[in-house]
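Section handout 9: paired folding examples.
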Amino acid sequence: MLNKIACYTSSFLSNTIQDSKYTAEELEYGIKILLNNISILVISFLISYLFNDTYSWFIVTANFVLLRFFSGGVHFKSSEACIIVSTFLIVFIQIIVPYITSYIPVLNAISLLIVLLLAPSGIHNQINLKAKNIEIYFKFISAALVLINFLIIESNLVSVTYFIQSLLLILNLRKQRG
């Protein structure tokens, strides 16, 4: 369904805007990404709202997106799979945190180790990596985010969010190796 909306919208825009520097295919790709992200945010927010936990939703979503931008992670072939898995993870993190608080230091250490070993992963098609040493900077920023939470902020929600996001780096590694 999102593909049809993106296709229709990109066709409409490319026919309406004659001097566009983007092709219909490029517009369609961008619109798919936008619709995908909006779907994840809206669905996960509505679920969190039903459970009266929008504060946790904001913390989890903001930190998930922040670490994912710098560390990367697995990408699914279909928008639907991405929406389902991402929404599930955001809601799952909010639910599971109270039950695993005694494991938070271990999760932080594992997250840091994974990020140091594997980040950035799977971001080469998402952003321009032509800047010199950008991968080192992204690895450093990813590790810094985990360390800042571990040593200063000490948020259980953020710790579990970073742990789950770091596991997506392992999944991406396995996917790349086939």
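Moving on to protein 2 of 2.
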Amino acid sequence: MRYRAWCGLAVGLLLTATSVVACSSDDESAEGSPVARDDGPNKKPGSATEVNLPTLSRLTVDELQLTVPLIAGMNENAQWIQWLVNKGAGPVDAYSNEGLGKMMGRPDFVAVTNEATAPDTLYVKFARDMAREVCQSIRKSDETRSGNFTLWSQAPVDSAASDDEITNNLNRLILRFLGLRLQAGDDLLETYRQVYLAARGSATDSDAQKNGWQGVCMALFQDPAFYLH
């Protein structure tokens, strides 16, 4: 299952290795270590029952290679948007072995046969790099379209968006990236509203509103609810 990340305003944008493992769902711990549980009226004074909760795993390199383009969508040339890095003759898929796939932990089945799926500092760094590059590509692609936008399908960017339009667009993006349907007033929805407003700034011109939605995109790609399971 996906885990909600309650990390305040900086969710996704200010992730560190510590915040990755510290974020949790409403009723489940993100750590695999034992936690104390109150057993109610039958609990002996001063005692606690240890409950071993499952350790969270990150998406594998193969899973990311398939998932990121599906969420990012297609560009103006009807090609899937990928995270690209420059290698030798030109840009390559960052998740391929020619790119950063092996560095990120994809097994070669010679020296490495299993991919370590615990989130670490390097993984979080690559998540940040991917979010920055892919969201920029999505924005550039959206700017060439007259409709069917990815980042602002429910809110205008050529005029000031209303609170309802911002809410609808946030809900659409959260559903697209995290697979969560949220009700009005949900804490996670309001957290992402603050991310949008912080990235947009005080201005409401087209570039400012696009900056806001690009910031939300980057935060969603870095949200533990996206890459932990």
